[in-house]
Structures are given as C-alpha cells and as structure tokens.
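So, is this right?
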Amino acid sequence: MTTEKKLHAVTDNTPAPETTTNIPSDASDFDSLWQDPKLGDGIVDVSYHSVPVGKPKDFFRTHPDPLYRRRTEIYTHKPEGAIDEQHFIVAPSMRGLITEARPCTLTCIIYRDGSLRLWPIKFPKDGERDNEAWVTARNAAKTGITRWVKLVWTGRAYITRDAQPGYAPDPDISRIPAWNDLVRLSIGENGVIRDTSHFMYRELYGIPPAASESNDDDDTL
C-alpha cells in the first residue's frame, strides 16, 4: 500500500456503525418487562364461568380420568315452546321418586378451544331394556377418550365421525377445574333436587307454591 493510501485510511471520517451501547438504556432490556408467557395472556386463555349440559354438538374429546365420569340420576326439563333444556341432578334421597328422571353417567367432554360440556349419557332403569341410542352414545364417549370425534345421528342411533389428522392436539386437561366445581358451574345453585320442597318437584307434581313463593308473587311495585 502506498503512503497516500495509508494516509486516506487513517483519516477516513466515515461514521462507525452504531453498537448496542448507543441504544437507550430503557429499551435495551424489554424482555425484563414481561411476565413468563407460560402464565398466559388473560385474553385467549380459557376461563370457566359456566359449563353447559347436553350432548356434544361438535368434535370433542372425553376426559380420560374416570373421576370426570360419574353415575347419577338426572331430570331433564324442557318447558313447552322453549329451546333450551334445564337439567337437575336428583339427590340419593329422592331417587326413584321422580318418574321422568333417568339414570345416567354425567361425562365431561372437551372441545378444541378448551371449553367444556357435561354430557348426561342415559341408561335404562331397572327392568327396562337398553336402547340403541343410549348404547351408541356410550360407545361414542368411549371412542372420544383417545381421539377427536363428532356425534352423527342416523335416525335411530349415533355413529362417530373422526376428525382429520392435525385437527387438534390432545386437550390440556391440567387446567380443568375439579369435578365438583364443574358440576357447580353447570347446574347452578338450585340444580340438585334434594327433597320435595324443591321448586321443580313441586311443579312436576302440581304442588302449590311454598308460602315464601306465594308472598313473592303478591309483591306489588
């Protein structure tokens, strides 16, 4: 290299590239501002405020833990002209006293988005014959333990339709509330018929309203 070229190299005034030391200190550690992503974002995380009851309407998985499938007796009430059904669990002290109630397995199912549903899968009463609708519903719930399936009604029985590969990963059951909490969220405060004073029992058997209910009806504005 000639002397002239050496001099040019030494005296070149081109600004040096900025380094991280030129970044303002309040912007250099943004990562320290955020909580661990594993804690969730509070927006798309599933939170359970209520849990519907009824047969699944989309692809689902059945909770694999037997503690999330419980035998009980349930009465399903559908007022005339209404779309939605109401479900009442019959307490042991009242079982056999409500003709319309049926034995069932109350089963927790999970949708792809993490939302939950309790599915009452019916059984025959003592002395009754099982029917194809109940049998195939139980088979569908069993299939749903290991893969994503959808109920399809054929007119007399259910068949299952498997989801395509990649539809969804296995559901994360670690964040699902305890069983009793799910039941509380699904049936509400008055969802258990414990004795003959329950309003639904009184309605079913034409019993006059209790005194407190009559007083409420007489209130005027």
About this structure: The longest strand covers residues 69-77. Strands lie at 61-62, 69-77, 86-90, 102-110, 116-122, 149-153, 158-162, 192-193. The chain has five helices and eight strands. Residues 5-11 have pLDDT under 50 and may be disordered.
